[in-house]
């Protein structure tokens, strides 16, 4: 029997609520499909920071490196500035483990009403390939002349050929597999260096994938079109920041932040990949017991798929689809219901 070691970092806010609620269910799914995994919990995050002055120990990445995968809840706390917490835990893992593919599926499940009129289940079904290690999130810049009138901040974006090519190629491969189309999101009208370079790379890589239709969209028009014609998208590829923004739109038009899963994938075998819901620590609902656990369950499905455990991945994904399609099933308030996190998990467990 295959067995895996998985690091679990529940993190902040609703992170521990959804991670802890989902874990027994996820273990069931593994059990029933014939493999085992052991989790090691790392209580890193803002509470740890307030006690220790750092979000994770200095050797944090070393301690995660040998796991088969990492599962993370969320990071972010009202008492500590976000740039401190995110740059202390989440972003160093994505970058330090070269998790350059951020894969974010957006599916309108049966039983979910999109805030956009007229779409039925399956009409919206696209996946965003977001560059996850450079671009606008590169740590290039600084602040000078602090406190003076001429105080200056510089934040530069970094686009390398290797970094751009590999995310674009991953997106083309996905589009080929889905027998679909690819939409490249840029801002090449205004950002004439980085984004025109991105367009050039897309043109180069597209030669390797003649069967894939390629569309280029400026990010402002892309944001508009995700609202106006979301059914026409299949695979989108975007830089780090644009991908971040568009995937919150994607989550919302397919029902809720509480349903959106995500994988930070290192396609090689040198480092573990990390899976997490798209949403954050949701301080506005923390402690209320109403956080939707389904984004977490779907992210575990992506984790299992990445490990090659397709049966368990399908069991979780189909279980969520089945539950959402059932009008009588419990739902959390973000989906219009009154149920709690635990009710949703218990119901889902009975369906597996
Ligand atoms: P958020 O995703 O935490 O919340 C946005 C809205 O969606 C809130 O109204 C929240 O209640 C709702 N929501 C989110 N997840 C939900 C769930 N599972 N069930 C029901 N409702 C849910 O975004 P935010 O408010 O902009 O950020 C809060 C904190 O989280 C900040 O510190 C931010 O930096 C951080 N953040 C972290 C991550 C991450 O760890 N990957 C992602 C986004 C934001
Ligand atoms: C996400 C989040 C993060 C990002 C933040 C918290 C740094 O918004 O995963 O979507 O921008 O990548
Ligand atoms: Mn985001």
Model description:
The longest helix has 19 residues, at 14-32. The chain starts with a strand and ends with a helix. Helix 1 packs across helix 11 (310-325), helix 1 (14-32) runs parallel beside helix 12 (341-351) and helix 11 (310-325) crosses helix 12. It has 12 helices and 12 strands. Strand 6 and strand 7 (152-155) form a beta hairpin. It is 40% helix and 20% strand. With 352 residues, it is of the alpha/beta class. It is globular and about 55 Å long. Strands 2-1-3-12-11-4-5-10-8-9 form a 10-stranded mixed β-sheet, sandwiched between helices. A two-stranded antiparallel sheet has the order 6-7. The structure holds nicotinamide-adenine-dinucleotide, 3-isopropylmalic acid and manganese (II) ion.
Comma- or semicolon-separated keywords:
352 residues; alpha/beta; ten-stranded mixed β-sheet; 12 strands; binds nicotinamide-adenine-dinucleotide; binds 3-isopropylmalic acid; binds manganese (II) ion
